[in-house]
Amino acid sequence: MYKRQGLRGLSYVEVEVTGPERDLHSGVYGGAVANPINILCEMIASMKDANNHITIPNFYDDVVTLTPEERAELNKAPFQIEVYKQDLAIDDVHGEAGYTTLERTGTRPTLDVNGIWGGYTGEGSKTVLPSKAYAKISMRLVPNQNHEKITALFQKHFESIAPKSVKVAIRPHHGGNPALNPTTGIGYLAASKAMEKSFGKKPIPTRGGGSIPIVALFEQELGLKTVLMGFGLDTDAIHSPNEHYGLFNYLKGIETIPLFCTYFTEMSQQSVA
Question: Which of 131, 156, 176 is where one domain is finished?
Fold first, then answer.
């Protein structure tokens, strides 16, 4: 069995690229003055190579690479690539070369643009060469990466690749460290037993791609591992306009958590006896 479950960490920043002090006429000035939107797009594109490997220096220094055995166990989780693509209405998946989709979303770090804007975006046309361009960028992190270190590495790199024709500013928003929990402790074993009782199937430990920063904080400040039990589905459309949560899973959560408390108490008493 794969002996770990966990979550990725997060470094989230907003970047600003400034060219001229005001929006300019793109006919009068185009070709002679830097366009911040063009520059920003070029800078972002340069942060990944042809294999979708992040090019920020030292970005991967602390990444813990899974052993071949761990990778094999992780990929035993139920997953159908064709169903995955059909659900998302995509013709193919995309990501870091050499890794499966399950590995990319749970065990490898990422860099994604969450939003980008600048210039004229209203109805019709307005031929401006914009003064500013902005982007929000998130980096999902894996053990043993530190979000503050990664944010600093991003800032140093982003500033270093900016041409002299523009000025850049980086504003960190928030972040959190990744978490990795063993599946041999009483907490996990009690959760596994509870979910098997309520769902009728033994759960498979995995590493979620999302981030819950307080999990790592609990371990840092309290020395406690967190039990992670998920009741959502891929079809819940998380972070989309139609995000939702099924009533069946909600009720299953209500059924499962008291079972967890019961089994955790029983196992704790047995370990003390």
Answer: 176
Sequence-distant (6+) residues with CB within 8 A of 250 are 231
User: How many Å apart are CA 33 and CA 31, to the nearest integer?
Assistant: 6
Question: 165 vs 44, 119, 157, 225, CA distance in Å?
Answer: 16, 17, 17, 49
Rounded Cα–Cα distance for residues 211 and 232 (Å): 15
- Neighbour tally for 30: CB within 10 Å: 13
The pLDDT tens digits of the residues spanning 89-105 come to: 999 999 999 999 999 99
Q: How far apart are CA 167 and CA 130, in angstroms?
A: 13
Which H or E run contains 24?
A: strand 24-25
β-pairing, 128-129 with 24-25? antiparallel
Assess whether 231 and 202 both reside in one domain. yes
Residues 31 and 16 in one domain: yes
- 27 CB-side CA count, 13 A: 2
* Residues 190 and 168 grouped into a single domain: no
Residue 255, in any domain of the structure? yes
Dump pLDDT digits (tens) for 185-235: 899 999 999 999 999 999 888 888 888 889 999 999 999 888 888 888 878
Closest CA to 114 of 9, 63, 207, 44: 44
Count structural domains, the chain. Answer: 2
